[in-house]
Amino acid sequence: MSVTVRVPAKVNVQLAVGAARPDGFHDLANVFLAVGLYDEVTVEAADSLSLTCTGPGGVAVPEVPLDRTNLAARAAIALAARHGLGDPKVRIHIAKDIPVAGGMAGGSADAAGALVACDALWGTHASREELLDICAELGSDVPFSLVGGAALGTGRGEQLEPLDVGGRFWWVFAVADGGLSTPAVYREFDRLSPEAPEPVASPALLEALRTGDVAALAATVTNDLQPAALSLFPSLKDTLDAGTAAGAAAALVSGSGPTTAFLAADEAAARRVADALAASGTCRAVRVAASPAPGATLL
Ligand SMILES: C[C@](O)(CO)[C@H](O)COP(=O)(O)OP(=O)(O)OC[C@H]1O[C@@H](n2ccc(N)nc2=O)[C@H](O)[C@@H]1O
Ligand SMILES: Nc1ncnc2c1ncn2[C@@H]1O[C@H](COP(=O)(O)OP(=O)(O)OP(=O)(O)O)[C@@H](O)[C@H]1O
Fold it and tell me: Per UniProt, which keywords does this protein have (predicted)?
């Protein structure tokens, strides 16, 4: 028997970042929105833990580790340990469609997917709270990958409050040539903003989400990590400019980057922006997706 779980990517429509905490993390006001780009995690019983990963068209994805450091493997190990199952005897396959190291929480999605899939395979019946606890141990973005939709993340982003979304938002994502390390971007943030104020969610942005108002959301999206990502990856400015010139309602770096995100008025506008970005030569690939999207879902 095998179990497959589908998990979404995310974009941060507001990422307000405070000063570094003593534990090295940063307090956030992190408004997550799940978008309709998905990885699928399939698990089946085996003699020992093993992992495979393929991208679109079944090609290998060399950036993704296939050992026990992979977040999906770590999720299986954590669930098995909590339930006294020892080393997990499971074969995990990740069908990856979320850009890797792109600031879209692809690894986090795989962790949430593997957790839900193993829980179903093993019949461990973990409660929602237990699943969220394990997610938070695995990474700051992982709890949101489990719940999907839209949520305000506080603390280091792991404490979630679900948010209402009153409509559909269309996005274009420009995948950069190369990746950015999340810790490196946070370190650059510290260098550029040593006196960062306490992060606060924007009431106008939450209202724009609640009413499904694209123009209002476009006017209120912000990412405090954007200057740091641009400092480490200056050519992202060309991508942002190309999307803006093509008529995007808003252009921003997605999370810690280097994927850039463009909010469009509707699906037709998103397709036009995507075509212009693809022709601009400022990015490696372009994806169109709608939000919100559901969290980890058993198929
Ligand atoms: C940039 C975002 O993707 C926005 O959602 C997240 O804040 C990053 O979440 P993530 O990749 O799940 O991050 P984690 O795996 O928890 O942490 C990786 C590293 O990012 C930095 N980090 C992460 C989250 C946070 N609130 N403050 C941080 O400073 C720390 O250096 C940490 O060692
Ligand atoms: N299942 C996984 N999928 C992708 N990368 C993984 C996975 N497990 C571990 N990694 C490692 O994590 C790094 C970051 O990958 P990921 O795609 O999660 O980045 P990201 O989208 O920038 O994450 P975030 O938005 O949460 O900061 C990769 O370079 C890879 O070495």
Answer: Kinase, Transferase
DSSP 161: E
156 lines ligand 1 (CB under 6 A): yes
Please tell me the distance between residue 40's alpha carbon and the centre of ligand 1 in angstroms.
Answer: 23
pLDDT at position 139 over 90 = yes
Complex-level ipTM: 0.96
* Ligand 2 proximity of 103 Cβ (cutoff 6 Å): yes
15 lines ligand 1 (CB under 6 A): yes
What CA–CA distance (Å, rounded) separates 77 from 49? Answer: 9
Q: Which ligand is nearest to the CA of 113?
A: 2
How far, in Å, is the centroid of ligand 1 from the Cα of 140? 6
How far is residue 72's CA from residue 111's CA, in Å, rounded to a whole number?
4
Residue range 193-230, pLDDT digits in tens = 999 999 999 999 999 999 999 999 999 999 999 999 99
Tell which one of 13, 180, 186 to mutate to probe ligand 1, the residue whose CB is within 8 A of the most ligand atoms.
Answer: 186
Of 133, 163, 193, the one marking the end of a domain is 163
Q: Comparing C-alpha atoms, which of 27, 126, 135 is closest to residue 74?
A: 135
Q: Which residues contact 47 (CB under 8 A, 6 or more apart)?
A: 89
Ligand 2, atom 16: closest residue by C-alpha: 101
User: Count of domains in the chain?
Assistant: 2
Cα 284 to Cα 5: distance, rounded to the nearest angstrom: 28
Choose the catalytic residue: 27, 39, 110, 141: 141
For the beta carbon of residue 28, count every other beta carbon within 10 angstroms: 25
The whole domain housing 189 covers 169-291
Tokens representing 211 are 């009413």
Predicted TM-score of the model (pTM) = 0.97
